[in-house]
Structure of Branched-chain amino acid ABC transporter permease/ATP-binding protein:
Amino acid sequence: MNLFLQLFALGCATGGIYAISAMGVVAVFRSSGVINFAHGAVAMAGGYVMYSVADTLGLSHLIAVPAGILVSAVLGWLVYAVVIRPLADTSTLTRVIATLGVFVVLQQGVVLTYGSALKIPHPYLPTGAVRAGPVSVGADQLILFVFSAALTAVLWAVFKHTRFGLATSAVAESPRSLAALAWRVGRLRGLNWALGGALAGVAGIALAPSLQLQPNSFALLIIPTLASAMLGGLRSFPLTLLGGITLGVLQAVCAHYLDLPGVGDAVPFLVIIAVLMLMGRTLPLRSHLNERLPRVGSGKVHPVRLLVAVAVVAVAAQTLLGVQLLDGLTVTLVTSIILLSQVVVTGYAGQLSLAQVPIAGVGAIIAGRLLAATGLPFPLAIVAGGLAAIPVALAVGLPALRARGVSLAIATLGFGVAINAVILRNSDLNGGAGGLQVGFQSVFGIDVDSIVYPARYAILCGLVFVLLALVVANVRRGRVGRRMLAVRTNERAAAALGVDVASTKLYAFVLAGVVAGIGGVLGAFRNPTLTFTSYDPLTSVNGLIQSVIGGIGYVPGALLGGVGQNGGLATAVANTWLFDIAQYLVLILGIGLIVQVIVQPNGIADVIAHPKRKKGPRSAAPRARLPRPFARRRAAAVDAQIAAARRTDHHPSGGRLEARGVTVRFGSVVAVDDLSFEIRPGEVVAVIGPNGAGKTTLMDALSGFVPATGTVLLDGSPLSGLPAFRRTRAGLTRSFQSLELLEDMTVLDNLRCASDPTDAASYLIDLVRPDRGRITVATVAAIDTFTLAEHLHRFPTELAYGTRHLVAIARAVAAAPKVLMLDEPAAGLSEVERTEVGDLIRHLADDWGIAVLLVEHDVELVRRVSDRAIALDFGRQIAAGTPDEVLADPRVVEAYLGHSTSVMRPTKEVS
Ligand SMILES: Nc1ncnc2c1ncn2[C@@H]1O[C@H](COP(=O)(O)OP(=O)(O)OP(=O)(O)O)[C@@H](O)[C@H]1O
């Protein structure tokens, strides 16, 4: 018990400091909605400045400590003013990546200024023991704990009771309202960033004497910091203190009682995962903002160009390049393979993984141990490394099922730290200080020893890169690629099209894991003795940065990113002909990244592929692709498929939807209250009601987007309990009020996404033979009915508003639904377009027998199109019958207009 109390006290002291650092993150997040990944590096800078002033210059800590805090505060403000402010209108991903750039710049700046060696600052607080009953704690720890509690109280009071604090809480919600009240939003945010920096500095200075200063480990203070901040819900200072203490105590107890190396480092990660799993959702809410991510390439392979490039590299490697350049080439190719994994998981699938390099390390360590233990041939060891990465990649991907964006980045960074601590730095696995002896390798009898035959090893890496690049490009062009793009663009829309969002994400992580694992093996086996120090989480951050600079959505982007790897071609060329830039390379990359995300977020590969395109991810691809012979051939093939489908006399047919006692609660709000109704094949049933009546929530409940009680039956089969994509596949399809078109895809690919077969075989077949997708009878029916033939190769952003509406309905029809639910399909359309949409809805019901549930505010349209109507108010059914009966019902009139004497007129817009 005494020991536990002792550990508890120790954990409280460390946790208090985590909490101080985390409160800096909270202050920044409350004001700007941004998670600053450079926060740990800012803390580290504070610690180093304190060390310089006190230990190097020999000045008093009374000067050194404030100096460290001041520098951190200034750094915090600078990050805001120089990096975050110019990126105010960009995606979360862009801002995360930018702060990662700052992280790298600060970390490398410290390395260049102070070196990587450990620095041990002199303690500045009394270190004697203080006894309280059976527990003895250091006086410094006690002081720091009391200080953290006092600081929490001060911050809580400031943010709760001062104008500054109240304005900060308001600024993240509504900067415009605050500006209207004469607040200078930029200055307020800048102050919070400075406060965040200062708090990071306090934490860095507090931890410096016990943690000791070392750039690589100290900057990772960001992980426990973020874990504490997440436990505090990124809002509450007292809860953040509690979170920090919980974390500190858990770390101390686990490290003591669990005999597992690195377990202390893994605890914050486990806490992060637990929070994400508890708080996250499998599909985002309606309010989730879908942001455009960096553009993706087409995955088109030019065989002639590829063969020429391979031949040139092979000949140059064998005949022209010296050892240094060959080594640079090998490092570039190995890195490029690992970055290919980033293209799959982040570029295509939109999942921000910061664990790809540690995953590569797992592949390397397992292949190394297998080969050392069994004498496995090298090619099989490469494959084994790829396969060995699968379970770890799956585990890294699991949080993605409930977390997205910044949260996922935090989880994967934490996972990387845990993998590094528990597996890669584990001397039971990594061969200890001497490394893992594997000797030299051969492939099919050819010696590929990278020291004697560096050219051969480089060529081997080149061939593996080409092979994997082809696989990744195939995936992009196939059915699976469409699913990934749909998921990255809009998870709700993807699920509504029948895409299994969870499986698609996990597949992306697994495929990326295999690719990274193979890269990891090739990287480690460059030497006869394997070491795993270069598979650390910081290298993973650098890897992401290189991917973004190269073009994270492009296969060639991985190669371009690999060129910039430390020790890669850029370094080798510069070292051979210029000067030793290795030490500055990471710094240059970090600065390059920050400049690039501001100027050209899509990467160098995008500029090369489309030199004339505008820079922002929002600028659509121009139609000018069609004249190219390839595009013309493809268009002709599409036309032929459409013609063939037209010759068959099939079209979608309807089914019967039954809802029994469907109820949805959001806390105390009952959004849908015990609704029961039926829609028969060929029937159009309108659901009307004032704003907030529960119409969209009803649709969400029927289609599986929100949890509901009650029963939903399709043709007598229960749908309740099934996830959204399964309901779509069963025949219940929906459109969205906000259309939710997949903006990264052409109209045709939007339709294909809805009509693609859903079998799992494509996950494997697409790797070698991508399925461009057949055009189904339902798709052609949708194209013809909604006259979309001329728009098929356009992107949604290029279409007129009315046409976008038609595409949204056509896409739902392309899924061959039995029951179609349309959420305000006529909103914002002109009179003529509304009439057209009404006719089309009737056509779907009358000619194809589809059962239609129509949510609509346009009373005229409801009256003209629907067979029956149901009126809702506060989630409850207040009337049902023919449209005329329902619209004339006094309860409906009252619900809409607030008093029963008014007469409901056939106006166009009631709301
Ligand atoms: N995720 C949510 N959490 C909490 N409350 C919610 C959520 N989604 C909807 N609501 C509430 O449920 C009620 C019904 O909202 P809903 O959007 O379904 O109404 P609606 O009839 O579709 O309105 P509109 O015509 O404006 O689209 C409202 O009170 C709304 O605030």
